[in-house]
Design a protein that fits this description.
The chain has one domain. Helix content is 32%, strand content 37%. The protein has helices at 2-9, 16-70; strands at 77-78, 88-92, 102-108, 111-121, 124-129, 141-151, 154-162, 165-174, 177-186, 193-194.
């Protein structure tokens, strides 16, 4: 009998209160770890979405600004005031000296496209001419040579400016994240058309 008393006083096992406390503490630790994991995942996703928008905007602006900077003829009539801006721009492709080609940037839904085209008269379709030439009082016909997707997630693209200075306003949106960029490009040796 003495041995049984000694065993009862020696706390080798766990009672129900200790088990509940251990479970509650384990549950609290699990919830804290789970919340930290969720916060980290959300932060990573937000960072990735924003980084994708910034990268896309940078590529779009670099490409458009480089080509506008090198053009000698902006064929689109650009409004001077940004409030009356237009959503596409067309200009002479100064990269191709062998042919007279034109580049047009335009939005299709939320995608930015880059179209390359040329003008010709039906009497000589193999001869490329400038957009403002006439034959018998008639303007030339246009042919689209290529149309490429340049960027996506674009909710707004506006062009305005005058005297070779082009203002570009760009808004990109993805997964409720939005960035806005405005950029000014000075075209070299341009004979741009502007509304008075």
């Amino acid at each position: 009998m003495l041995n049984l008393k000694k065993f009862k006083n020696n706390h080798l096992g766990m009672n129900i209160i200790e088990v509940v406390l251990v479970l509650a503490l384990s549950l609290m630790i699990f919830i804290i770890v789970w919340n930290i994991y969720n916060i980290t995942q959300k932060s990573y996703k937000n960072s990735t979405d924003r980084e994708e928008l910034v990268q896309n905007a940078r590529i779009i602006m670099d490409r458009i600004s480089r080509e506008i900077r090198q053009t000698d003829d902006i064929t689109t009539t650009l409004p001077i005031i940004n409030d009356h801006s237009i959503h596409e721009i067309k200009f002479h492709n100064s990269h191709n000296d062998a042919q007279i080609e034109y580049i047009r940037y335009y939005l299709d839904s939320n995608e930015l496209h880059r179209e390359i085209s040329h003008y010709y008269f039906s009497s000589a379709p193999e001869t490329y001419v400038t957009w403002d030439m006439t034959e018998g009082g008639l303007p030339p016909q246009m042919h689209t040579d290529s149309d490429q997707l340049v960027g996506e997630f674009i909710s707004q693209l506006d062009f305005s400016g005058s005297n070779g200075l082009v203002d570009i306003a760009l808004i990109l949106t993805n997964n409720n994240k939005q960035i806005s960029l405005t950029y000014q490009v000075l075209s070299r040796n341009t004979r741009s058309i502007a509304n008075p």
